[in-house]
Specification:
By secondary structure, the protein is mainly α. The protein is built from 9 helices and 2 strands. Helix content is 73%, strand content 3%. The protein has a two-stranded antiparallel sheet with strand order 1-2.
């Protein structure tokens, strides 16, 4: 979903650029609360993985292309604010050095993939996590649902932007059909990848997964309660 130069008119590109700049500024402040010396390296690994995943592009018709987004994955692993920064850095590097996405469309791409993708992914993840048992095994399925939903939602937001400021001589309904159809399929693939990656990290280092913190805290509390219950009263004193 990398938007190229000239695909949207100047007012729309400027507007999304302002939104993107504001989102990144807020994310810089929020990321301070999510990262520490132990979890900071995970942000670099997430950015690297998202970069590699997004480099695999394929045309979906109507002048657009599709690829894995990684917004939900980033949000679950390192937190929503840090996730916005990770995906934003990837998009800037791709636009400046890989000619993947237009330079004048950096703001649009950040808005779609880093802001919408991460925000929707995180909100859906939190909602699904709340209705599942508070166990570490629930983290990967919740992340998969988040990825599945975030991808087509981002494509719908792109279609809305195109309807407002699209410059290509393509009917909006044709863009909508192409984007939504393909990104529903991409969402399924992204859900599988997200579940596998999150599940693998949770299995090995759950303490590094931002979205697993409530479940990890619940497990520790349960363990502490069992130890306390098994300890004789005299030994506790």
């Amino acid at each position: 979903m990398h938007v190229p130069d000239g695909f949207l008119d100047a007012p729309t590109s400027i507007a999304t650029g302002v939104v993107a700049a504001g989102a990144v500024a807020v994310a810089l402040r929020g990321a301070r609360r999510e990262l520490d010396d132990r979890t900071a390296p995970m942000a670099g690994l997430v950015a690297t993985f998202v970069f590699a995943a997004q480099m695999v592009n394929f045309p979906v018709g109507a002048g657009t292309s599709g690829h894995l987004m990684g917004g939900a994955l980033a949000a679950v692993l390192v937190g929503p604010w840090t996730g916005v920064l990770c995906v934003s850095v990837v998009l800037i590097v791709q636009a400046l050095f890989m000619a993947d996405g237009g330079i004048t469309a950096i703001g649009t791409n950040i808005t779609l993939l880093a802001l919408v993708g991460v925000a929707v992914g995180w909100l859906v993840f939190v909602a699904v996590r709340a209705i599942l048992p508070r166990r570490l095994s629930s983290v990967a399925p919740a992340a998969a649902v988040a990825a599945l939903v975030s991808v087509p939602v981002a494509s719908l937001v792109f279609t809305a932007l195109f309807a407002v400021g699209g410059t290509a001589p393509i009917a909006t309904d044709r863009v909508l059909t192409a984007m939504l159809t393909w990104h529903l399929a991409i969402g399924v693939g992204e859900a599988v990848v997200t579940a596998l990656v999150v599940g693998a990290v949770v299995a090995s280092r759950p303490d590094l997964v931002h979205g697993a913190r409530p479940a990890l805290a619940a497990r520790r509390a349960e363990t502490a309660a069992r130890v306390a219950a098994a300890t004789p009263t005299g030994e506790r004193a």
